[in-house]
């Protein structure tokens, strides 16, 4: 498989300070049903802390409804996707390179915890809720990154170690063997061009057989692995992708509802309207005003 195909869903992750690889994004959305980030993955750990509102976050095959005070943990190389569920969504996205916590010497903390996390063999649970200690850590890290007072780097590393300790004690999802990790990465690499093909050719006729051939898998094996990775059947995933594109066009273009439906792969305007309202909870005409 060509490297560029694997890289298509990998998000470039430049850090403001490469010598201290951590960054914070503040994200606000005032409309329901908006895609807050498309399907993608990266090597870094990501922590999404919801301040207000609600969002639907997909991490691999897990779909989470997150609300104020919840923490979403995105493991390294985990496919993730998000949609706003409210008109007052505000959340922080904290992205950290685990190398920030590596020790110069090989100690117990390094071999038992940091290395397995960095190698993607120790996976954390995606949804952490009603945990005041975890929330306190997130608030402390956010405050240190925003204020940047003298010694903030020490404070952030300290809070990151504490955050990981809390997650390791109560929120470990699974520990992979070397073989299981290799199989997981193999599947991610195999399916990256499939997800990218859907992203680029969403309005075309996309059959399961065509996509299975791209991954060099049988229809049955492909469908099983696809749902395992994305949490959706192939048809559901294609429909979601088309609806996301349609939502954007309805909000940001002058196209009519019929034109948006045709541009996003829906040949039947009535089916498009029913499907859009079912998934987005609003009619397409209410967004376009026509």
Number of domains: 2
Find the CATH superfamily of the largest domain.
Answer: Regulatory protein AraC
Could you describe the largest sheet, including whether it forms a barrel? 5 strands, antiparallel
- Mean pLDDT metric: 87
Strand content: 15-25%
Radius of gyration: 20 Å
What's the CATH topology name of the largest domain? Jelly Rolls
Order of helices and strands: HEEEEEEEEHEEHHEHHHHHHH
CATH architecture heading of the largest domain: Sandwich
Spans of 5+ residues with little confidence (pLDDT < 50)?
Answer: 1-7
Overall structural class, as computed from helix and strand content, comes to alpha+beta
Number of helical segments?
11
Structure, explained:
This protein is of the alpha+beta class and 290 residues long. The protein has helices at 3-7, 108-118, 132-147, 152-170, 178-200, 208-214, 219-230, 234-252, 257-263, 269-280, 284-288; strands at 22-29, 35-40, 45-52, 54-59, 62-67, 71-74, 80-84, 89-96, 122-124, 127-128, 172-175. The relative contact order is 0.12.
List the helices and strands and how they pair.
Elements: H1 3-7, E1 22-29, E2 35-40, E3 45-52, E4 54-59, E5 62-67, E6 71-74, E7 80-84, E8 89-96, H2 108-118, E9 122-124, E10 127-128, H3 132-147, H4 152-170, E11 172-175, H5 178-200, H6 208-214, H7 219-230, H8 234-252, H9 257-263, H10 269-280, H11 284-288
Antiparallel strand pairs: 1-8, 2-7, 3-6, 3-8, 4-5, 4-7, 6-10, 9-11
Keyword list:
290 residues; alpha+beta; Jelly Rolls; Arc Repressor Mutant, subunit A; 2 domains; five-stranded antiparallel sheet; four-stranded antiparallel sheet; 11 helices; globular; disordered N terminus
């Amino acid at each position: 498989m060509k490297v560029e195909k694997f890289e298509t869903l990998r998000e470039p992750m430049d850090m403001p300070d490469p010598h201290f690889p951590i960054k914070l994004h503040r994200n606000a959305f005032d409309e329901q049903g908006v895609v807050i980030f498309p399907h993608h993955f990266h090597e870094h750990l990501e922590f999404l802390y919801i301040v207000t509102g609600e969002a639907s976050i997909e991490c691999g095959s897990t779909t989470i409804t997150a609300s104020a005070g919840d923490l979403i943990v995105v493991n390294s190389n985990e496919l993730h996707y998000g949609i706003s569920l409210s008109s007052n969504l505000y959340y922080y996205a904290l992205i950290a390179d685990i190398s920030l916590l590596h020790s110069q010497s090989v100690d117990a903390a390094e071999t038992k915890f940091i290395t397995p996390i960095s190698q993607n063999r120790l996976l954390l649970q995606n949804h952490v809720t009603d945990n005041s200690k975890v929330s306190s850590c997130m608030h402390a890290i956010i405050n240190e990154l925003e204020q940047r007072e003298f010694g903030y780097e020490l404070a952030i590393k300290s809070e990151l170690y504490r955050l990981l300790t809390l997650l390791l004690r109560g929120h470990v999802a699974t520990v992979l063997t070397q073989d299981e990790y290799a199989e997981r990465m193999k599947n991610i690499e195999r399916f990256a061009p499939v997800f990218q093909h859907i992203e680029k050719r969403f309005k075309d006729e996309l059959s399961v057989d065509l996509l299975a051939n791209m991954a060099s898998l049988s229809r049955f094996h492909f469908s099983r692995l696809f749902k395992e990775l994305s949490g959706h059947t192939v048809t559901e995933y294609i429909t979601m992708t088309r609806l996301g594109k349609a939502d954007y066009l309805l909000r940001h273009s002058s196209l009519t509802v019929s034109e948006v439906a045709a541009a996003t792969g829906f040949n039947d305007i009535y089916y498009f309207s029913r499907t859009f309202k079912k998934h987005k909870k609003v009619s397409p005409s209410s967004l376009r005003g026509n």
